[in-house]
Amino acid sequence: xxxxxxxxxxxxxxxxxxxxxxxxxxxxxxxxxxxxxxxxxxxxxxxxxxxxxxxxxxxxxxxxxxxxxxxxxxxxxxxxxxxxxxxxxxxxxxxxxxxxxxxxxxxxxxxxxxxxxxxxxxxxxxxxxxxxxxxxxxxxxxxxxxxxxxxxxxxxxxxxxxxxxxxxxxxxxxxxxxxxxxxxxxxxxxxxxxxxxxxxxxxxxxxxxxxxxxxxxxxxxxxxxxxxxxxxxxxxxxxxxxxxxxxxxxxxxxxxxxxxxxxxxxxxxx
Length: 270
Description:
By secondary structure, this protein is α+β, with helices and mostly antiparallel strands. It has 2 domains: 5-112, Winged helix-like DNA-binding domain superfamily/Winged helix DNA-binding domain (Arc Repressor Mutant, subunit A, Orthogonal Bundle); 118-263. Helix content is 44%, strand content 19%. The protein contains 10 helices and 10 strands. It has a 5-stranded mixed β-sheet with strand order 4-7-8-9-10, with helices on both faces. Helix 7 packs across helix 9. The protein is globular and about 60 Å long.
């Protein structure tokens, strides 16, 4: 029996290659540095050794079309390989489709995404990477990290139609005998306040269905992560001025404050 090219490629991939491929699939886009922090920093003695191993691996996976890089780089062309943003390549798609059970089904129509989409997706990925790193350092026990679409929640409207709530991230962390559940919304200071208020109303409506509580016994806190303190105050004021929003459900923090909020541990800059 002649082995297929796909089988040959799969046999050539190391366990870390599969883990890396799974991370890119999970978060949709990852920068070179984010991949390095997830998969190479924990096993290499120095940042230089970690960066070199990461770049060699990514180059090999790109040559095999397991991964591809966006045309637009973080920091422009001068950023070199550190500026690449990675997504699943055609061979990577075939590998994920061939797993048991398949991770993805069907082929995807790829188009170079907009700058806003890339920046927002990488900002979500960054919070996830920070959370995972905090778990490794013992700052918090990280039980679940889900990005879109795994983070999405479905419910039924009063008319029987399916409603889908789309948090950017869903986190479950642990401390002692307690679990802490979070829905994370990453704000890039580009949305108008009525859009944010409507999203908060959607969380209130989803909580009222009780679907999440039936499975988990509680409802997550909703955390808006914003670029700076001025934006945080604007969002807080808008939510406080809106009738029907439970102030105990929603929290707002800056990107710098994020880890302190979700882990309960003071940040290094505090």
